[in-house]
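Quick start: what a row looks like.
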Amino acid sequence: MIKFLKYILIITILFEAELAKANDYERAYEALAAEDYEKAVYYLSFFASNGDARSQYNMGIIYRDGLGLEKNSSAALAWFILAAEQKHMLANYAVGLLLRDGPVDVQQPDRAVHYLKEAGFLGHALAPLEIGNMYFLGNHVQKDRALAFVWWSLSAERNAPGAQANIAALTDSLRAEEMTKIQNILKSCDVQPLRKCLRKPMTQSK
């Protein structure tokens, strides 16, 4: 009987601890919604430090935008990457943009491409648009209008603003060999996962 009572006591304590943890998690996002960033950071930092990808992403936002804390792009990037490594879609996109367009001390355009692609593979609508723009302009990648068209097409399927307009503006000027390349890639993507059919590495332009 004593052993049974001890067991019940342990279960009760664990349950109450989990309940308190859940309540703190709710408090974190209630504070975030109320723009009480000091309180939000107090709770979010705990969950982020314990591996919660959503909290890590939001800590990145707080540091990136200086919400209640001094802006710190390096800290923002560190939190974003932790979340991105757990396949957090928005974190991958945030890392990509920060590495490409952020302050000079955190810019690493070659790495940016990887994270933008990951965001696209995870379903982000704007990430393929950004990648298409990079291919079209030859911005940190080898200029390739066919690949720009393919990535824009993926973004258009997800109803990203501007993607369809980009496709329309490019279509009439495509050369025959570019059209063939586009058709072959799209055909491949019909029967293969995106990660496989779009696996070709992006080479930095000279």
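That is the whole record. The radius of gyration is 22 Å. Residues 1-87 form one domain.
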